[in-house]
Amino acid sequence: MEAHLHLVDACPGMLVEHAGELHRRTQGHIASLTNLLDRVCWLAIHTGVETITGALLDRATSDNAATTSAHATSAAMAGSAGTGRSSRSAGGRKRAPASSGTS
Description:
The protein is an all-alpha fold. It has a domain at 2-72. The chain is built from five helices and no strands. It has helices spanning 14-17, 19-26, 30-47, 54-59, 64-80. The longest helix is centred in the middle third of the chain and has 18 residues, at 30-47. Mean pLDDT is 82; it is low at 86-93.
């Protein structure tokens, strides 16, 4: 993808440098990634920066699909942070709360 970004100050590895943030923002969806890169490139050109930076990534808005998916992932991770495990079983269904062991 990097080869298709026509920015004056583009350098090899500029996307790899921001890979974690790009994945977090797009949740690995290729359409969301291309949309975000399009927006960041527009900002880079119009601000005169002509490369992709963390500051430009922060300013660029994500599409609705990526934003919704990122919020859902964050909420799921926050919900399982206290237990160290997901509240879903291997089959994707919610687990029943553990019984207290007394009847």
